[in-house]
Amino acid sequence: MVKQMKIAIIVTDEVLECKNKGEFYSLYDNFIKRYGLIDEHNEFGNVEVITTRYSAVQKEWPIDPLSYDGYIITGSASSAYDNNEWILLLKERIIELDRHEMKMCGICFGHQILVESLGGKIEKNTKGWELGQYTVPLNKEVSIIFDNIINNKNKNNFNNDSANSSRSNSPILKLDGASTTPTDDDNGSKLLLKDNISIYQIHQDHVSILPNDMISIGSTEKSIQGVLKESKKQPGNYYIISFQGHPEFSYDFIHLLISDLHHVNQEMKDISIKTLQQTTCQPWLSNLVFNFFKN
């Protein structure tokens, strides 16, 4: 039996959608659908992801917000601290979703507006732009949480059958990207935890104050690189995940955006573009976010 997982993609920048023939939305759509990936054991083959686009700029929103399994809030050239009417309205809606512990994934601006809406603070980074491809070290606690999500060990699993499966019976997808570090699980077995992720970056705003009930996934020298928020109703489970970088961007799209920046000198753009590689942790992060919503 095929189960449907309904995800609302909240688009927060219509200009970026037009920059490359509408590719912007499809980047997020393909990301949450794991690029059509089905692992060799078909563990996830019984979940069909259905996405719906809503424009935050046009103040669009689901008629029944609680009917969705989760929300993805996209990147934007806007700032989370702007007083535009649509941004203020989106913050109100995020607060309401948070009250119901609806699952949300924020990317870049999406990450920032989640933090800003729920008690944190976003500011222009005095250390300047973060551009190019970066390796982000993950906090040890977060590596373990991500391992639980990837391997379907959370309690509120979308697929109840896999929720009861043991670690030894869960296939590990061989996805490109994050490096691993051996550590011991509760039974003394060795687990391979991801200790860093490689991700594209293009932002100047950053989290300057983190809400008390959120944890940072890790940081670079310039900024906090994402957050998790734990459920109060189901401790040990997380209903907010975010990334300061862009796990959904393609090489061509990030190259285009950096090249088109008007407020960055050419030397900095050239240096940033030289850091870009064709491969990032995109497949692994896509699988992580898919399982975040599914679990």
Write the layout of secondary structure elements.
Elements: E1 3-11, H1 14-19, H2 23-32, E2 47-55, E3 70-73, H3 85-99, E4 104-107, H4 109-117, E5 121-124, E6 130-137, H5 140-150, H6 160-163, E7 180-184, E8 190-194, E9 196-203, E10 205-209, E11 214-216, E12 227-230, E13 238-243, H7 251-259, H8 266-274, H9 282-294
Parallel strand pairs: 1-2, 1-3, 3-4, 4-13
Antiparallel strand pairs: 5-10, 6-9, 7-8, 11-12, 12-13
Helix pairs in contact: 3-4
Order of helices and strands: EHHEEHEHEEHHEEEEEEEHHH
- Major sheet summary line: 7 strands, mixed
Mean model confidence by pLDDT: 85
Radius of gyration: 18 Å
Structural class: alpha/beta
The strand line-up of the biggest sheet is 2-1-3-4-13-12-11
Say how many strands there are: 13
Give the termini separation.
Answer: 17 Å
Shape: globular
Name the features.
295 residues; two-stranded antiparallel sheet; 7-stranded mixed beta sheet; 9 helices
Mind explaining what this structure looks like?
- With 295 residues, the chain is of the alpha/beta class.
- The chain is built from 9 helices and 13 strands.
- The strands form 4 sheets. A 7-stranded mixed β-sheet has the order 2-1-3-4-13-12-11, with helices on both faces.
- Strand 7 and strand 8 (190-194) form a beta hairpin.
- The longest helix is centred in the first third of the chain and has 15 residues, at 85-99.
- The radius of gyration is 18 Å and the shape is globular.
- The two termini are 17 Å apart.
- The model is unreliable at 156-180 and 182-191 (pLDDT under 50).
